[in-house]
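Problem 3 from the worked examples.
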Amino acid sequence: MEEDLIKAYLNTDYQVDGLEKPIKVGQINTELDLFCIRSGFQNWAFITAWNPLSVPLSDKENQIRNEMLKSDLSTHSIFSGRGQDAEGVWPPEESFFIPGINLSEAIELGRKYGQRAIVAGTVGLKASLIETLDFEGNTTIQFWPKENGLSVEPGFGYAQARAPEK
């Protein structure tokens, strides 16, 4: 992924409606962790369908795409949110916080909606940016921060993505 784009994703505030503190890649969000624990979830993801491959679309097109994503998430508890570029270069992108979603399903949904990356995490670990598609739209998988501990088991592909044992 291009350096400037990674930097923008890493500096974005991922705000979940109803929570005071935004999700920040590379940081633990104790408010979010407590919410997940109280709700009985260990894992979560933050996904949007806006601006596939980081190519801006109209608000109307983006809203239609997000409604399709919402429909795909109908078996999950979801909370509205938005990704806000901290430098204000990109307008906010309406998004969904999905507690309890399996990491491999989150990655697949990101790819289905043309997302270069999603944000995901596990209670007690730093939030991770997960690259799902490269610049040309080819599947890939990379994690930021690299030392966070989320991984994909070698030889099993993303379907076996999991957080390591503590």
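Problem 4, a separate protein:
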Amino acid sequence: MEVTLIDNQDKVKLDPDLTKEVAAYISDKFDRDSKSQLNIIFLDGKEIRKLNKKYRNIDSETDVLSFSYISDRDELNPGDDSYTIGEVFICPEVAWSNIKDQDKNWNLNLEIVLLMIHGILHIYDYDHLEEKGKVDMEGIQNSLISDIRRTFNL
């Protein structure tokens, strides 16, 4: 899968090389099709709040939003071999505030990784509204975080 990172915020400094490498690693766990594409977009609090209001009718900042285009593949890309499976929008400002409640072994890079995983899981129809889905999703997230911590020495 091809992953495109777009950093449309300047409030929180990200490590673009690490983020791109980890994003590709995560996405390959879900889809090894070289014709599929995933966009990960980093937004400031104001912009993610607008998206959250528009698409979820919640007028507040959030850490991650995701939009899946998998079910619309044929409609959006008729006759085209390449296709965008979805987009994950992440707010590094909210991610930064999330880590304040974590232990000393947690940092911004790990929080961004967690949000990428979380967003990708939603693209593939995982959800945490029901208890079973929440348990499944958290199990996958925790497994991938452990794998990434070992693989990338985070």
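Solution to problem 4. The chain has six helices and four strands. The CA atoms of residues 64 and 75 lie 26 Å apart.
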